[in-house]
């Protein structure tokens, strides 16, 4: 679950906590099951001793990832090596994407120090496809890879303007709304997931209206939603055009979709519907445990995060309903550098790892939802229920959401723009009570300065 929307999408360099937030989101999205990437080592050299050994007489394929990406943890490497005893797979992980990605760009520029396979986080995929395409294999031509297996928008994100597909998607982050059944009941709202989804179906303004009903009878010390920034990201995740237009021009300042998402989130803050939290901070984690907010925008990997933080204290208290509109938060890709030592064998491995059957296993083992729509009908996905969230049919809920996500234009600096809108602008509106206009202007100033560098 890499996700980073802001995951997984930042006047002067962005504040350290902003960078940390983006990285944590990327790590969370890489996890699927919601465990933060704390066990990986910051060793980014695939030619180091960490990637040698154990493969005498075999072809060793090196894989470079960020965080606890999940493929290894899901047992997929072991399964492939069992099928292909002549192959040995060695993975190198850099814990933080903020360290991983600049190193990757440096290695691509020099043509050295690259793993045979390199992972890419969704917020970096536009820059990779647009500026690094010539240094990567066309995986669309690899035997066994079928465009029709993938969601159209996911395939498009890894394809350059000439039609060369340089990256294949491992997972996506279709969103639902996770909600606390016990808090909804106390506030006099329905608790059945179909009835809950009907409260706000088709319109984020209806979501705010439900929030006002919740607030009227809210259990003491609780809020309807965790954060205004998280809500803003969820609304933006359903737009075909956000920060860039199809010609690559930065348009977030004038794009109605971005301003609408801003206005929805600012209204939530103004109405007092938020817990005024910043996601992926210790206070937010503690709020999950303590049950101080009733809803959160929720891709599949977020359920894993809730499980990790809430453990047995919140088991059975959460459920999942459809979001007002289809939206995506997170997802990653695999690429094969042309300068790799074993690129043909690496391409075969990528084709296998991203095939529907393996993506279904990845979901079953790690919670990373398939980017291959052909996996949606497989039993591991179609029949998936999660006892932690009241046996919610998560396979169906998230499959339905995924099918409605538009082909979204992803720009090279999406992450910078999204982070500043969230952490410089909306955070001030939510936590400090500044006006929507002043928060927007602060974010725009910070983004302009960052994009000029």
> Within the largest sheet, what's the order of strands?
2-1-3-9-4
Inertia-based shape: globular
Radius of gyration: 21 Å
Query: Are there runs of 5+ residues with pLDDT below 50, and where?
Result: 1-53
Helix content range? 40-55%
- What is the number of helical segments per DSSP (H or I, 4+ residues)? 18
Describe the 3D structure.
This protein is an alpha/beta fold. The chain has 2 domains: 231 residues, Periplasmic binding protein-like II (D-Maltodextrin-Binding Protein, domain 2); 154 residues, 3-Layer(aba) Sandwich (D-Maltodextrin-Binding Protein, domain 2), CATH 3.40.190.10. The chain has 18 helices and 9 strands. It has a 5-stranded mixed sheet with strand order 2-1-3-9-4, sandwiched between helices. It has a 4-stranded mixed sheet with strand order 6-7-5-8. Helix 11 crosses helix 12 and helix 17 runs antiparallel to helix 18. It is globular and about 70 Å long. It starts with 15 loop residues before the first helix and ends with a helix. 56% of the residues are buried. The N terminus is likely disordered.
């Amino acid at each position: 679950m890499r996700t980073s929307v802001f995951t997984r999408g930042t006047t002067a360099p962005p504040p350290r906590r902003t960078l940390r937030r983006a990285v944590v989101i990327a790590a969370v999205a890489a996890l699927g099951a919601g465990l933060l990437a704390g066990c990986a080592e910051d060793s980014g050299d695939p030619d180091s001793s960490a990637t040698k050994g154990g493969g005498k007489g075999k072809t060793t394929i090196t894989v470079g990832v960020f965080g606890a990406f999940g493929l290894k943890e899901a047992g997929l490497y072991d399964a492939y090596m069992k099928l292909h005893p002549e192959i040995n797979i060695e993975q190198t992980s850099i814990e933080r994407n903020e360290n991983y990605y600049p190193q990757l760009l440096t290695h691509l520029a020099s043509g050295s120090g690259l793993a045979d396979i390199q992972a890419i986080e969704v917020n970096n995929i536009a820059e990779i496809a647009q500026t690094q395409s010539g240094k990567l294999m066309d995986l669309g031509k690899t035997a066994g890879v079928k465009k029709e297996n993938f969601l159209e928008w996911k395939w498009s994100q890894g394809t350059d303007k000439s039609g060369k597909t340089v990256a294949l998607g491992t997972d996506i982050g279709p969103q639902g709304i996770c909600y606390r059944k016990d808090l909804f009941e106390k506030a006099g709202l329905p608790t059945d997931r179909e009835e809950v989804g009907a409260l706000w179906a088709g319109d984020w303004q209806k979501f705010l209206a439900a929030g006002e009903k919740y607030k009227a009878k809210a259990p003491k010390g609780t809020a309807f939603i965790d954060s205004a920034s998280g809500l803003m990201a969820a609304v933006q995740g359903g737009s075909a055009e956000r920060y860039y237009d199809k010609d690559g021009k930065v348009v977030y300042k004038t794009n109605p979709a971005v301003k609408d998402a801003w206005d929805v989130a600012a209204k939530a803050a103004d109405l007092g519907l938020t817990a005024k939290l910043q996601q992926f901070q210790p206070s937010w984690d503690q709020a999950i445990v303590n049950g101080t907010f009733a809803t959160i925008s929720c891709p599949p990997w977020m359920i894993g995060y809730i499980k990790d933080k809430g453990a047995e204290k919140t088991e059975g208290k959460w459920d999942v309903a459809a979001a007002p509109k289809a939206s995506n938060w997170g997802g990653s890709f695999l690429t094969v550098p042309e300068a790799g030592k074993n690129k043909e064998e690496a391409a075969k491995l990528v084709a296998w790892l991203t095939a529907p059957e393996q993506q279904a296993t990845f979901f079953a083992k790690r919670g990373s939802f398939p980017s291959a729509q052909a996996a949606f009908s497989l039993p591991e996905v179609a029949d998936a229920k999660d006892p932690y969230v009241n046996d919610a049919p998560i396979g169906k809920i998230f499959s339905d959401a995924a099918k409605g996500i538009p082909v979204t234009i992803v720009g090279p600096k999406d992450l910078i723009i999204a982070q500043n809108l969230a952490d410089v602008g909306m955070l001030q509106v939510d936590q400090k009570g500044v006006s929507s206009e002043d928060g927007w202007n602060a974010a725009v100033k910070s983004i302009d300065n960052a994009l000029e560098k």
